[in-house]
Write a structure and sequence with these properties.
By secondary structure, the chain is mostly helical. It is built from 48 helices and 7 strands. The chain starts with a helix and ends in a 5-residue tail after the last helix.
Length: 890
């Protein structure tokens, strides 16, 4: 219902047959609007501004987007969202633009959104127009500042047309002086004699003499609404005869004329309907029935439309209508005069209908006007937590500030809502004061409602303690609130479980975190607060990844993605959450060697992380992007991603990402044959206690083991095996299957290099057994040629044949069939020459090799010369490349 009502604001208004097509003005718009940044159509009510703009919009050769403005757009975030939706109706592809991504966040940065709007507009290949009708209803200075910014930087192919009763607070003089403003004002909108004749002929159905038309048009000064009043007069008197319609004068006499010549001539049931429904900005049949207490509202609206009685249809289905502004203002004045005692009740009825149909914003406004405190409380109780979770802080602040302080004094429910808002916006001192006030007022009150409110206050204290990393107090508050909250108080139960789950995860209490997230997810099923569902799904997926379980993680992320892409979720989910979902899905696709899918997901995730400045997402995204580039052999692009991640990892307060960054840096160095740099880092990590002090220490341990394997001498290999055995023991004890799979794979490579084929195949088979059900691929491929050769040996012995074949296929052309070096060389390398070649590959100088092997530098030169001769190369680089080709090096 809410979406249907919003859609009426985005549609070019429908008007009854017989409307006068004012070609002189339409042609002026068609000719001129594309030559100016801003076209202003400004005149008092009743001069046909909306009719003109709608008529031109429907016939223009230029694509036109329409937005009817009102109180809903009187805040910058909503204004931009609704403006985007209006534009999307003529340019659907902007639904995938950076602008749409930004505005899909609950709290988009207005300046970033404005810049994205302009960037999107700069890509237009042809002219487009956006019409903003009833601009005079907007009061928020941030909206006017935003519009001024857009107009000042607008690219040449996008144009704004603004309809208003008065000049908007925009720098019109600035645009006028620069020749960027087209103006259509009251004098332009006055009906000419031919237009008046056409209008009266269509409305009245009879021909008037030229002098009668001229006389009437002079009396109303070309005012379209005045002519419409005159057109109604004979019909409402039951006449319909020829003769000059009468009207009592100019606009300031309109109330008298409407009363005497129009309203009083209507049947009683029509008058009663009009006056009682005048409290409504937009009308539908069921809504009117609720307000009037009668039936037949839909029939009455269609009758009024047929009789051209100042009612306009807003959609093709004839579900929504509105009164002409002039008529609506008259009716409201009549209501205040004739039935003042009924006004609050009419608002209350409207409020209850809107609330029952899921439209809290008009419901709240009518409830306040109707003095329905119980409904105000119910709306705050139901919707304030949801809107806070969606980031609609401006709306919630407006609601709360619109209530008199005496209501807070009398109703702790409202004070609790205010406390929740203050806590969410970081005003912790005011948050605490409001909670204390709630608890003071409810102390000793034994009603069920008092117990519920006290439990909610305790739940808020739990969430606040979690935000302050005070786990002991958080658990105390959480347990107490859980005991006292009613089972159906879903939001606050979700809040407790989500907050505690996050805190448990931060301190490594994984099982407790999982239990909390599962409970939060169970509670969130069917909840309108989509953020809580996505957060719980994402947290559970991350826990599954920590356990090496790709399938459950992928299924959870897919559920989160489906929620993200629902239309109802637009504008409700923070960009960091959305970006993180796509980045983590990309990580799983990468592990399964689905490189094209990984790139697509990563692009979407990284774009959202960068738009919102989400440091964690940007680090994760650039590290994964760099790893993908390394896999495809593009070392230069991988380095670019590494450097984009470096300042983020160094400056951010995410210590757990430091090890991930350094591990990728090591992989990058190894890809550049910069083994010396990698070994120096490894030596620092192997100093006493250095690894234990690292957050996410298993990441650092795996990185150290990888460097030791590439270094390749026997002491390094033995040290790697010892380190991996320790890591494997702790990973298996903690259920960290992903770490265990990789540790076993690295152990297999270490054993292979030490000549322990049986041990290598045993470790490899254990790793494959755990990895196959989850579909790991890249974990093995990233270990390079040694793992490839080991997998070839496993295939020759029928070790998990199907899975091994799939892994070998993923190596592609980078893994030719093994060819023993003895077949390719005229004379094999001696063991000492093999040692020298390995250290050349490690980047050591002759002097360093000599020192390491405890022989003279001259002897090293002789060995090097022998190596060059046997390999048929001329320098170190060629020797290393040839050695790897012949499987002499890893």
């Amino acid at each position: 219902m809410l979406n249907a009502l919003l859609t009426t604001k985005l549609r070019i208004p429908e008007y009854p047959q017989g409307v006068v097509h004012r070609s002189r003005l339409s042609q002026a718009l068609e000719r001129g609007a594309l030559d100016y940044r801003l076209t202003l159509v400004s005149a008092p009510a009743g001069y046909g501004k909306t009719t003109l703009l709608a008529d031109w919009a429907r016939t223009s050769r230029t694509p036109v987007g329409w937005l009817s403005l009102g109180v809903d757009e009187d805040e910058i975030e909503r204004f931009l969202r609704h403006l985007h939706l209006a534009w999307k109706r003529v340019r659907p592809e902007i639904a995938e633009s950076r602008l749409a991504i930004l505005l899909g966040s609950p709290m988009p940065d207005p300046q970033s959104a404005l810049s994205a709007f302009l960037n999107t507009a700069s890509e237009l290949a042809s002219h487009e127009v956006l019409i903003l009708d009833d601009y005079h209803l907007l009061q928020d200075s941030a909206v006017h500042d935003g519009m001024a910014f857009l107009l000042d930087h607008l690219p040449p192919n996008l144009h704004f047309v603004v309809g208003a009763r008065a000049d908007p607070p925009l720098p019109l003089g600035h645009f006028r002086a620069r020749g960027q403003l087209l103006e259509i004002r009251t004098d332009d909108l006055r009906f000419t004699i031919p237009e008046a004749a056409d209008f009266l002929r269509r409305r009245i159905g009879v021909e008037l003499r030229d002098e009668e038309i001229q006389s009437l048009n002079e009396r109303v000064e070309g005012w379209a609404a005045g002519l419409q009043l005159a057109a109604l007069s004979p019909r409402q008197r039951g006449g319909g005869t020829a003769g000059e319609p009468s009207i009592s004068g100019r606009q300031h006499f309109v109330a008298d004329y409407l009363k005497e010549d129009v309203f009083e001539q209507l049947p009683p049931e029509v008058k009663a309907f009009l006056i009682r429904t005048s409290v409504l900005g937009r009308l539908s049949g069921p809504l009117c029935d609720a307000v009037t207490g009668d039936r037949g509202g839909q029939d009455m609206l269609e009758r009024l439309e047929r009789e051209n009685l100042f009612v306009h249809r807003l959609d093709d289905e004839r579900r929504w209508f509105r009164y002409h502004h002039v008529f609506a203002e008259y009716l409201l004045a009549e209501l205040a005069t004739r039935l003042p005692a009924e006004v609050p009740e009419l608002h209350r009825r409207a409020a209850h209908w809107f609330a029952a149909n899921g439209m809290p914003e008009p419901a709240f406004g009518h409830a306040v006007k109707g003095g329905d405190v119980a409904l105000v409380i119910a709306i705050c109780d139901r919707y304030v937590p949801e809107k806070i979770s969606r980031g609609e802080f401006t709306l919630v602040r407006r609601w709360l500030e619109s209530l008199p302080e005496r209501l807070y004094a009398d109703h702790p429910e409202l004070t609790l809502a205010r406390a929740g808002f203050l806590g969410a916006t970081g005003a912790f001192e005011a948050f605490a004061r409001n909670l204390e006030e709630v608890e003071r007022k409810l102390a000793g009150v034994g009603t069920e409602e008092a117990r519920r409110l006290r439990a909610r206050a305790t739940a808020l204290r739990c969430a606040a303690a979690c935000m302050q990393n005070d786990l002991e107090r958080a658990e105390e508050f959480g347990d107490r609130a859980a005991r006292e909250l009613p089972e159906d108080d879903v939001f606050y139960r979700e809040l407790i479980n989500g907050a505690l789950g996050d805190t448990y995860r931060q301190v490594g209490r994984w099982q407790e975190a999982r239990e909390r997230y599962l409970e939060a997810l169970r509670l969130s099923e069917g909840s309108s607060v989509r953020f809580l569902s996505v957060h719980a799904l994402g947290a559970l997926a991350d826990l599954s990844l920590r356990q090496g379980r790709l399938d459950p993680a992928a299924a959870l992320w897919e559920r989160a993605r489906r929620i993200i892409e629902e239309q109802e979720s637009w504008g409700s989910l923070p960009l960091p959450v959305v970006g993180w979902v796509f980045i983590r899905m990309a990580e799983i696709a990468y592990q399964r060697n689905e490189q094209e899918r990984a790139r697509d997901l990563l692009t979407r995730g990284l774009e959202r992380a960068e738009l919102d400045g989400d440091v964690r997402g940007m680090i994760a995204g650039h590290l994964l992007a760099g790893r993908i580039e390394l896999t495809e052999g593009d070392v230069e692009s991988a380095g670019e991603h590494l450097e984009r991640a470096r300042p983020l990892a160094e400056q951010a307060q995410f210590a757990d990402w430091r090890s991930s960054f350094e591990r990728f840096q090591l992989e990058f160095w190894l890809a550049q044959d910069r083994l010396r740099a990698a070994v120096e880092w490894c030596d620092r990590m192997l100093e006493d206690g250095a690894l234990d002090a690292r957050p996410e220490s298993e990441v650092a341990r795996l990185a150290v083991a990888r460097v030791l394997l590439v270094k390749g001498d026997s002491p390094s290999l033995e040290r790697a095996r010892k380190l991996l055995r320790q890591l494997l023991g702790s990973a298996e004890a903690e259920g960290r299957a992903g770490v265990a799979i990789e540790a076993l794979a690295l152990q297999a490579v270490a054993a292979w290099k030490l000549g322990d084929l049986a041990g290598a195949l045993t470790c490899l088979e254990r790793s494959l057994q755990a990895a196959e059900p989850e579909g790991y691929v890249s974990l093995f491929v990233d270990l390079g040629l040694p793992m490839g050769r080991l997998l070839q040996k496993a295939r020759s012995r029928s070790v998990r044949a199907g899975y091994v074949d799939a892994l070998l296929a993923a190596f592609g052309s980078d893994l030719p069939e093994s060819r023993p070096a003895i077949e390719a060389l005229p004379e094999p390398l001696t063991p000492r020459e093999q040692e020298v070649l390995e250290r050349i590959a490690a980047g050591l100088t002759n002097r360093e090799i000599a020192k390491h092997l405890r022989i003279s530098a001259e002897t090293i030169k002789k060995h090097t010369a022998n190596i060059y001769g046997k390999l048929r190369v001329r320098n170190r680089t060629q020797a290393v490349a040839r050695g790897r080709e012949l499987d002499l090096l890893a």
